[in-house]
């Protein structure tokens, strides 16, 4: 077990989150593509961890990957993200988790756009959005 700053019991997470958010973030479920809140959102702002509120992704790095999940080419801060090898479902993928609370966010792939070449494929249910107003 990693040593997360934000620790809650299973019961606490279950009461804080809605059922989809709970299954995705605490049990590494994947929401169905094109069903989440944010896959086609283009508003300007910051995407936070739905569990602990940590800022994870900025709309400036969001792009349309055509996959039905919100996709970003980099996190706001590499230190806010944890990567772990995932061998589930007969695939080898790199899982992306929140470094502060261990929430499952999604996966990262090496087929993203410049400048990073990375594609963070994230579940909408793992995110909260703060719109930037000027
Ligand atoms: Zn978190």
Automatic annotation (TrEMBL):
UniProt catalytic activity: L-methionyl-[protein] + [thioredoxin]-disulfide + H2O = L-methionyl-(R)-S-oxide-[protein] + [thioredoxin]-dithiol
InterPro entries according to UniProt: Met_Sox_Rdtase_MsrB, Met_Sox_Rdtase_MsrB_dom, Mss4-like_sf
SUPFAM superfamilies per UniProt: Mss4-like
GO biological process: protein repair; response to oxidative stress
Note on cofactor: Binds 1 zinc ion per subunit. The zinc ion is important for the structural integrity of the protein.
Cofactor: Zn(2+)
Keywords noted in UniProt: Metal-binding, Oxidoreductase, Zinc
Active site residues according to the UniProt entry: 121
GO MF terms held by the record: peptide-methionine (R)-S-oxide reductase activity; zinc ion binding
Primary enzyme class: oxidoreductase
Alphabetical list of Pfam families matching this protein: SelR
Domain MsrB: 10-132
Binding residues annotated for Zn(2+), in chain numbering: 49, 52, 98, 101
Record EC number: 1.8.4.12
GO cellular component, one term: cytoplasm
Family: Belongs to the MsrB Met sulfoxide reductase family.
The protein's name: Peptide methionine sulfoxide reductase MsrB
Provenance organism: Caldimonas brevitalea
Lineage, opening ranks: Bacteria, Pseudomonadati, Pseudomonadota, Betaproteobacteria, Burkholderiales
